[in-house]
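Structure in, sequence out. Go:
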């Protein structure tokens, strides 16, 4: 078993939103960071969310005012720092007096408007549904408020790119199988997929394993987890677009839960989520027939367009690793987070992340890094609140769109729009010196060309067709099995000439280290 001579400052275990956020923050403060992820980036909870950057209106009912305030403030920060993958979205809430009285909703929306400063988003208001409403005729009145939408898996990749730009090493498909404290460092054994294990040394470890956070204690750290984690499954379905309006809907249900109905990828509607206690392997989570019925029933209760199980185009489920606060039901478990720090003789820190939500990931990462830099006196200060994520360094979407349209006048409008929404200013790294559509190489279908695929393999750690079609994009909604197989064959052939191990030769940093 090989052992690297280099000693890292921080090893981050887990390539979801919290892990990549912490890796980026630490690297930006001058620490030498290695991040390992047992699968692909964002391969679990972080790519299976409702894709919302929101304060959590319903959390007010559980008196989580601090969490909502923090999330509302972060909403503005993230909309500013990643305008290519996040944007405002208007939500409509049909009113049902028997579920929540109007005064209660007005009070909640007033707090939602005023708990934190609003810069980008409009205030809430009462509305009446007109003849053009997609809702059934009995829904006459409601409320309207604004929140944010995000491409969740691209947010994770963007943070990994930020970490790499500051010198971090990103090792995907690499498990942490053993970690023990030695005299002046941690000795950690990493296991790349289908390769020999190797050892690295690090001065600190961050356990950001998400649903696996407690399991890492049992299996690699050989210690007892300091917190209990409650695994709660949330499932979504994707159906053909329910209506042509740009609004999303927040639907109340008889069980006091709410379900979002959100325009998704131009031609679809995303419906979710559920809250179900989960006991199994987080890597094998799937939607149940009961959850499908639940989501279809609530949609059919509100909308004119009636749905059947055969209308479902796709579905996905994620396991949220929530702090076990001994709540009676899954829906009332807190979405807050807790950071647990342990040391040996005041050194060799182990920082573990329990809970959290995607909206507050940056604040969580900042708080985690604040704790870690106490052990590294040479580290610099906070920086992430004002620094755009990679791809977000542009004045406005309209200005960037105009620049790219001028530079690549032959690019179809739909493809230009997707590049903007995925890569922002990094679109130029995909397009490079292309002068015609043919210069982008093999067309795999639905606007996916070889130039984009090779970019994703070279710069964004994509190794499989699933990585490209479901996490770097959502083109899997359109691809047939035959098209997917063609893409997989192309990627396998391309990767055959690239070493697949995750040691220092291959756990790569992105080549372009200067922000666009």
């Amino acid at each position: 078993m090989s052992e690297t001579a280099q000693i890292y400052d921080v090893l981050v275990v887990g390539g979801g939103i919290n892990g990549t956020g912490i890796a980026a923050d630490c690297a930006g403060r001058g620490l030498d960071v290695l991040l390992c992820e047992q699968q692909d980036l964002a391969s679990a909870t972080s790519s299976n969310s409702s894709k919302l950057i929101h304060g959590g209106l319903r959390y007010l009912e559980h008196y989580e005012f601090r969490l909502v305030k923090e999330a509302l403030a972060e909403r503005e920060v993230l909309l500013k720092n990643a305008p290519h993958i996040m944007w405002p979205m208007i939500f409509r809430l049909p009113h049902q007096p028997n579920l929540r009285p109007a005064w209660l909703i007005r009070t909640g929306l007033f707090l939602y408007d005023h708990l934190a400063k609003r810069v980008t988003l409009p205030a809430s208001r009462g509305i009446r549904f007109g003849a053009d409403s997609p809702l059934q005729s009995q829904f006459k009145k409601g409320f309207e408020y604004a929140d944010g939408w995000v491409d969740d898996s691209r947010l994770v990749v963007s943070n990994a790119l930020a970490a790499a730009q500051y010198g971090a090493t990103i090792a995907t498909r690499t498990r942490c199988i053993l970690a023990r404290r030695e005299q002046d460092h941690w000795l950690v054994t990493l296991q790349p997929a289908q390769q020999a294990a190797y050892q690295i040394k690090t001065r600190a470890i961050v356990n950001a394993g998400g649903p696996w956070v407690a399991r890492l204690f049992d299996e690699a750290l050989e210690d007892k987890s300091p917190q209990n984690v409650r695994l709660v499954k949330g499932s979504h379905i994707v159906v053909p677009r329910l209506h042509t309006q740009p609004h999303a809907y927040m639907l109340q249900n008889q069980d006091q839960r709410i379900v979002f109905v959100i325009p998704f990828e131009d031609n679809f509607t995303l419906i979710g989520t559920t809250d179900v206690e989960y006991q199994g392997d987080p890597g094998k989570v799937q939607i149940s027939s009961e959850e499908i019925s639940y989501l279809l029933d609530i949609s059919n209760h509100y909308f004119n367009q009636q749905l059947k199980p055969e209308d479902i185009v796709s579905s996905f489920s994620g396991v949220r690793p929530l702090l076990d606060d001994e709540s009676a039901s899954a829906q009332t478990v807190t979405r807050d987070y807790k950071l647990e720090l342990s040391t040996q003789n005041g050194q060799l820190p182990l920082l573990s992340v329990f809970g959290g939500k995607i909206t507050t990931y940056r604040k969580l990462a900042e708080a985690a890094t604040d704790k870690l830099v106490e052990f590294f006196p040479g580290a610099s200060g906070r920086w992430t609140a004002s620094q755009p994520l990679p791809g977000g360094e542009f004045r406005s979407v309209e200005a960037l769109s105009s620049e790219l349209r001028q530079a690549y006048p032959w690019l179809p409008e739909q493809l230009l729009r997707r590049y903007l929404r995925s890569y922002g200013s990094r679109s130029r790294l995909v397009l490079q010196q292309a002068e015609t559509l043919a210069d982008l190489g093999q067309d795999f279908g639905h606007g996916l060309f070889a130039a984009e695929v090779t970019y994703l393999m070279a710069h964004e750690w994509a190794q499989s067709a699933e990585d490209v079609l479901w996490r770097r994009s959502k083109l899997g909604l359109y691809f047939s099995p035959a098209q997917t197989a063609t893409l997989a064959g192309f990627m396998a052939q391309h990767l055959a000439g690239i070493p697949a191990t995750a040691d220092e030769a291959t756990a790569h940093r992105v080549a372009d280290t200067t922000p666009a």
